[in-house]
């Protein structure tokens, strides 16, 4: 997710998106633990998306 796309989201939408991505990340970690092949770059990308969304949420909270 690009930062511009994240900035277009509103407060509640950001929270929902973070929850959705964390669920995906959890599923990928479970797959890794049971030995299924997963793309390690996908995990890294999801973690970065979460960080971007949290940054945008903090920026919006600071403006209020």
Q: What is the topological layout?
A:
Blueprint: H1 3-7, H2 11-33, H3 40-63
Helix pairs in contact: 2-3
- Poorly predicted runs of 5 or more residues: none
| Strand residue percentage | under 5%
Helix content: over 70%
How much is the average pLDDT? 93
Number of helices: 3
| Overall 3D shape | elongated
CATH architecture level-2 label: Orthogonal Bundle
The major sheet is characterized as: none
- Terminal-residue CA separation: 24 Å
Please count the beta strands (DSSP E, at least 2 residues each).
0
Q: Write down the CATH class.
A: Mainly Alpha
Q: How much is the radius of gyration in Å?
A: 13 Å
Task: Give the count of structural domains.
Answer: 1
The third-level CATH topology is: Helix Hairpins
Helix-strand category: mainly alpha
H-E string:
HHH
Description:
This protein is mostly helical. The protein has a single domain (3-63), classed as Helix Hairpins (Orthogonal Bundle). Helices cover 81% and strands 0% of the residues. It is built from three helices and no strands. The protein has helices spanning 3-7, 11-33, 40-63. Helix 2 runs antiparallel to helix 3. 5% of the residues are buried. The mean pLDDT is 93.
